[in-house]
Specification:
Blueprint (H helix, E strand, L loop, with lengths): L9 H9 L7 E5 L12 E2 L14 E4 L13 E9 L13 E5 L11 E4 L4 E5 L2 E6 L21 E3 L7 H9 L4 E5 L3 E7 L3 E2 L10 E2 L2 H12 L2 E8 L3 H12 L4 E5 L10 H8 L2 E4 L4 E2 L5 E5 L2 E6 L3 H19 L8 E7 L10 E11 L2 E6 L16 E5 L11 E6 L12
Parallel strand pairs: 4-5, 11-14, 11-15, 12-13, 15-19, 17-21, 20-22
Antiparallel strand pairs: 1-10, 2-9, 3-5, 3-6, 4-8, 7-8, 16-18, 18-19, 20-24, 21-22, 21-23, 23-24
Helix pairs in contact: 1-6, 3-6, 4-5
The structure holds ligand LQZAQKY5, molybdate ion (MOO) and magnesium ion (MG).
Amino acid sequence: MLEKRDPIPVQEAVHHVMKYAARGEIEYISIDQCDQRYLGDDIIASHDVPPFDRSPYDGFAIRAEDSFHASQSNPVEFEVIEEIGAGQVAVKEVKPFQAVRIMTGAQMPKGANAVVMLELTKEIEKDGKRFMVIKRPFKIGDNVSYQGTETKKGTVLVEEGRRINPGIKAVLATFGYAQVPVVKKPIIGLYATGTELLDVDEELTPGKIRNSNAYMITSQIYRTGAEAKYFGKLEDDLETCFQAIKNALSEVDFLITTGGVSVGDYDYLPEIYKKLGASVLFNKIAMRPGSVTTVAEYNGKLLFGLSGNPSACFVGFELFARPIIRYWFHSKRPHLQKVKATLHADFPKANPFTRFVRSKLIFEEGKLLVEPSGLDKSNVVTSLIDCDSLMILPGGTRGFSVGDEVEVLLLENEKGSEWPWN
Ligand SMILES: Nc1nc2c(c(=O)[nH]1)N[C@H]1C(S)=C(S)[C@@H](COP(=O)(O)OP(=O)(O)OC[C@H]3O[C@@H](n4cnc5c(N)ncnc54)[C@H](O)[C@@H]3O)O[C@H]1N2
Ligand code: MOO
Ligand SMILES: [Mg+2]
């Protein structure tokens, strides 16, 4: 007798999976290797920035009070007593009507409290001495970047769980993080199942297709920042698949399989979970595509049984595996970010289940539009080419038309969300 499967709502399925979410361990790596990795700890300002009062311009450091009476008709002369570039520190103190020629980034000399830009000065020589002349007054603090005005020592600047981008890397360098605390990458094992599968370099033969899921999923794994361990493809043979999956489990943090989760004669994953003694969290979700996506747990490890159909496989990964990986990377917003957009094409198909339409976003005249990125079928691969988002069309609806407001999950976005489900 065919086993009866009861579909559960998507948010319930995600909730079940997230019960097993765990944070990855921290490792320290060289800042040179840290691009795109996830921070395992908060990044804290180890000193004020700027660390000293400094000049933002090339010019002259003066005492502002000496300039108060300067005007077009009353030019004021300052004796230039020293010259400093960035990295140098003045040895002399600025006294009344004295100036230090100063370059951008150099520390303010003692006694000075304002900087005059080079363009507003004239230089003259008198009795073998250098002078500079100004024709307008300056206030105390004019053109001085004061210590700590950008950030104060002790401020948390970047929270753990953020992916390191060029800006974060600059901040790491600023505060002396030669070794960066990052989260160790989880190893995501992968098997593609299916007797019909050919390798990428094989010629097509009758009844066979090339294995695209393995390549797609490794790419999706890499997009999350995790490590992929592809074990190869398996023929639909219960014993072979069982042994391979059992052995693989000890080498990975999570295991993904594609195919074999439905009710066909050669869909062996349900039998394999049973044989393993794994507990199945769910095997039917009220969604399209990916309704047969199955997640099981064995000794605390999650096994993601993604559908064989490419689009269903793709969606299953993004909705269930990705948040687990993002959580592992210490994210406080491990789920996909959800935004509202305006439908740019009719979508007349009825939705008995919640539909996740592979979509592309369009920015047009200040509006966010969305349309399907190709044929909306579970077994389609070409609609994934331009897929940067998933349009959520709720179950029990009759179809949608141009201009309707819809919710969209963003796939190529680092921000994420705490929980996008209603
Ligand atoms: N009687 C029913 N039949 C089906 C049901 C159902 O509820 N009752 N569900 C359908 C749905 S929905 C989906 S989705 C698929 C799921 O199938 P499986 O996960 O069991 O996957 P397979 O049977 O192994 O393959 C399905 C399809 O995908 C192709 N495939 C498989 N692996 C790959 C790969 N690595 N690269 C590219 N394409 C792959 C495979 O050739 C099949 O065409 O079941 C429906 N059937
Ligand atoms: O799981 Mo199937 O992809 O619903 O189409
Ligand atoms: Mg099948």
